[in-house]
Design brief:
The complex is a heterodimer of chains A (221) and B (84). Chain A is of the alpha/beta class and 221 residues long. Chain A has 5 helices and 11 strands, in the order E-H-E-E-H-E-H-E-E-E-E-H-E-E-E-H. In chain A, the strands form 2 sheets. In chain A, strands 2-1-3-4-11-10-9-6-7 form a 9-stranded mixed β-sheet, with helices on both faces. Chain A starts with a strand and ends in a 5-residue tail after the last helix. In chain A, helix 1 links the parallel strand 1 and strand 2. Chain A is globular and about 40 Å long. Chain B has 84 residues and is α+β, with helices and mostly antiparallel strands. Chain B has one domain: Phosphoribosylformylglycinamidine synthase subunit PurS (Mth169, Chain: A). Chain B is elongated. The termini of chain B are close together. Classes of the chains: A alpha/beta (221), B alpha+beta (84). At the A-B interface, loops of A face helix 1 of B. Chain B: It holds the Pfam family PurS.
Chain lengths: 221, 84
């Protein structure tokens, strides 16, 4: 795994890119490379993180403009090849807007920007992003979002449930998400989108270590 | 080439909760407005666009609405078109 490199995408308005890089490099000794959104050359990265923030100022809808960047256009082939893509917060919004994951994320039910630690039940470990094989099936991660209310129609929800695509559910739904959904994967399991921030929970002294497993699983084949 | 003025209205689908609309409805009632049964907030996008006739322009606007202006998972759209 010496040369394994995670690409961390930087859009205008991304603000968690450096946190993600710090968590991967500093806490997990995984090499990272920043990828400017106008780049479409993904040949020297083995996995990709779409970090949180406010890409393109969240204009029109969160993630709506980012979807048209050259990098996101190149992502289709990357995903089809089975390589892993993790979308955190704004990254999750971009993944739904661009059709890599079903559903949409919209304004929190109470209209507040919620910045808090939340407890999450691990529902599925599809893709190996979460450890639900052992005793610990609940994790605590920080959330920080104004538009994190997951919405999908009933047919999509049934598909998510039937195919075990729901990765995380809030224990105490903070934003009004359908079915308490906090994170989902695609059918292959190589794409995960979640509103909570695993990169902010990678060090015991600043918020716990429940995010480490998910970031570490970027290096899974 | 003909030029058209297009007004696109993007609305949350009826089944999708509109918290901003609910908050504005609540404020409207506090203002003393009576009889408000529902209030929902959408977006209006004005576009001036050229094309060879109305059909070609409608095709372009449909593409823009389906792929960019609206997220059809949660939003509906309609538009009006006026030849300039």
């Amino acid at each position: 795994m010496d040369n394994f490199t995670v690409g961390v995408v930087v859009f205008p308005g991304s603000n968690c890119d450096r946190d993600v890089s710090w968590a991967l490099e500093g806490c997990l000794d995984i090499r990272t490379k920043y990828l400017w959104h106008e780049s479409s050359d993904l040949s020297d990265v083995d996995a990709i993180v779409l970090p949180g923030g406010f890409s393109y100022g969240d204009y029109l809808r969160c993630g709506a403009i980012a979807r048209f960047s050259p990098l996101i256009n190149a992502l289709d082939e990357f995903v089809k090849s089975g390589k892993r893509v993790l979308g955190i917060c704004n990254g999750f919004q971009i993944l739904t807007e661009s059709g890599f994951l079903p559903g949409a994320l919209t304004a929190n039910k109470n209209l507040n920007f919620i910045c808090d630690d939340v407890e999450l039940d691990i529902i599925s470990s599809k893709g190996g992003w979460f450890n639900n094989g052992g005793e610990k099936q609940t994790i605590k991660l920080p959330i920080a979002h104004g538009e994190g209310r997951y919405h999908c129609d009933s047919d999509t929800l049934k598909k998510l449930v039937d195919n075990e695509l729901i990765a995380l559910r809030y224990k105490n739904n903070p934003n009004g998400s359908s079915f308490d959904i906090a994170g989902i994967t695609n059918e292959n399991g190589n794409v995960l989108g979640l509103m909570p921030h695993p990169e902010r929970a990678c060090d015991e002294t600043i918020g716990g270590t429940d995010g480490l497993f998910t970031l570490k699983s970027l290096i899974l084949k | 080439m003909d030029q058209f003025a297009v007004k696109v209205f993007v609305r949350l689908r009826p089944s999708v909760l509109d918290p901003a609309g609910e908050a504005t409805k609540s404020a409207s009632i506090k203002l003393g407005a009576e009889g408000i049964k529902s209030l929902r907030i959408g977006k209006m996008i004005e576009v001036k666009i050229e094309g060879n006739g109305e059909n070609e322009v409608r095709e372009k606007i449909n593409l823009l609405c389906d792929r960019l202006f609206a997220n059809t998972v949660i939003e509906d759209y309609e538009y009006s078109l006026e030849k300039l």
